[in-house]
Structures are given as C-alpha cells and as structure tokens.
Amino acid sequence: MPARTVPRRRRARRTGRAAERGSVSIWLALGAFVMIVVVGMAVDLSGQVLAQQHARDVAQQAARAGGQAVVASDALRGTGVAVDPSAAGAAARSYASTTGVVVTNVVVAGDLVVVSTTDSYRPKFLGIIGIRSMPVSGEGEARVVRAFEGVEQ
After folding, report:
1. What is the C-alpha end-to-end distance of the chain, expressed in Å?
2. How many helices (H) and strands (E) does the chain have?
3. How many alpha carbons fall within 13 Å on the CB side of residue 21?
4. Which of 132, 131, 105 is nearest to 118 (CA)?
C-alpha cells in the first residue's frame, strides 16, 4: 500500500498592509526616545549657559570685592591707589564662597584685579545618556580708579 501523503498547507503570504503590521509602533517608540533626548539637550544646554553666566557674574563681583582691598597708606596720603594682593584674594574668595562657586585664581597687577571661577552644572535629562556633570568657568576683572574732587588753592 502506498504511503499516504498529507497535503502541505500553503502559508498565507503577507502582502500589503499585513506585512507592515506593527512597524508604526516601532517608529513611534524610537521617535519618542529621540524627542526626549532632543528636548533634554535643549533644556540642559540652556541650563549650562545659565550656569556659565552665573560663574562669570560671580567672578566679576568677586573682582570688585577684591578691588576694595586697597593699600590704605598710599590712598590716605593721596599718592596713588594700589591693591593689596593678599587682601584682594581673601576678599574675592570670601565673596565667592557665599555663592558656592570656586575661585581658581586671583591675579593682582597694580590697580587691576582678575578673578577666575569654576563651577559645574548637573543635567536634568542628559543623565539618561551618561552625562552627569557639565563644567563651567568664568572670568571677571575690576580696575581700581581713584576719584577725587578738585580743590582750588
């Protein structure tokens, strides 16, 4: 007796819309992730810019605070105005410590005080892709100017 053969079932061929079923959900998930990353970059990069502006502002104000540390003997005699380097550095660091920004360098050259600061920004969204901290820095300078009223003699 011949072996009985079982007819093979034909597979239904997926054509048209049936072949694309589920592809929209993959694109939607991928698109949503990309949009989150793009929005996160916009938010965190603008936050870094604000932190940079803050570091520059603190450097400028610390330089002004350091510029107040003049050599008293010269100023009282009226012979000129010079900044005391150690007192200017201490004043600049004291001011910056109240803001949380770190003063990295204070340079005093005659009547000029230059202050450099550093800080960091913690990203809100970019931590998802491994960015934990974004460094920022600033620099400000102040020049001490002697102002006096003319005295008629």
Report:
1. 142
2. 3, 3
3. 6
4. 105
